Amino acid sequence: MKKVSGLMVGLMLSASVLAGCAGGGGDSGEGGGERITLYSPETPEFTKELATKYEELNGSPVDVQYAGTNVLVNQMLAEKDNPKADVWYGGGGILPFEAAVDRGILASYIPDVAADWSEVEDGIKMKHGDGKYVGVEVFVLGFSYNTELVTEEEAPKTWDELLDPKWKGKIQFPNPAASGTATLMVMDQLMQRGEEEGWAYFEKLAEQANSMPDSGSAPTKGVAMGEAHIGIGFDFMAYEQKNAGESVDFILPDKTPVLVNPASLIEGGPNPEGGKAFIDYLLSEEAQQIMADAYHIPINSEVESKTDLTLEEVKKNAVDLDIDWVNENYDRVRNEWKDRFQ
């Protein structure tokens, strides 16, 4: 079986497609090469910044098309006979990319800088074995906490510590029936503990929660607003709040999902050479700095993280995730959550 570490956020509920053209109209930019079309569910401001820097460095215009992961995957499938995109970047981790591998929409391409990477390093799957995607940054699932309500010493350091009676009514986590992040949180615990013990764990965790919002980022925002002491979510969500001046910090649990957020070349895309060049760029110091400035953990060791976390540090906390089991059981686990808790 294929093993990977971590969760993703995975299959986000989507918004309608917003075409954010970072370059001008036409097939080529003045003085540059052919247009590159990028599909991404990452925030429009962030991806536009990446695109603008690429244009500045290379002269080729980049057309950023934004939507949720599910919408973009469905769009790529609908366009399979006449692809419109060159690159797909981001989706809350590797799960949607793994699910797309056998659907004929991803071409094989690994940048030279990643050619010598092991497929799995210290439990983290860094790239696809056949080159269908490559990781460009790292996400970690853990605990945000309100620093005015909880000290760093008091904050939970393991998933088991969330069950301490002192946190009853003070925790928020996303609804696994709606949030891909939370669904895979559940699946990770089921794999680590076994299904019987895993479901028993969530029976107890659900009793600790004062809310289970549908959005993956909502618990961290709830912590910032003082609606919860502890929230379950990804690291960058907490650091964004902290940088905005909110009383929020992040705990890296002892053992937790750690995953790369990938990029893929689109099979049959209109500008394959441009697509390859853009994926190369995503691993460059310039693009990695933009990711670091957005509180993502960069893969490029030459770029310093803007958070307290680094790739080398989080490797020690990564747990393995059986991607075959996830793909086979995703819908079943989500439906079972609905039956048990809703």
Automatic annotation (TrEMBL):
It comes from the Bacteria. Keywords: Signal. Residues 1-19 form the signal peptide. Transmembrane segments: none annotated. The keyword Signal applies. It holds the Pfam family SBP_bac_6. This is ABC transporter substrate-binding protein. It comes from Planococcus faecalis.
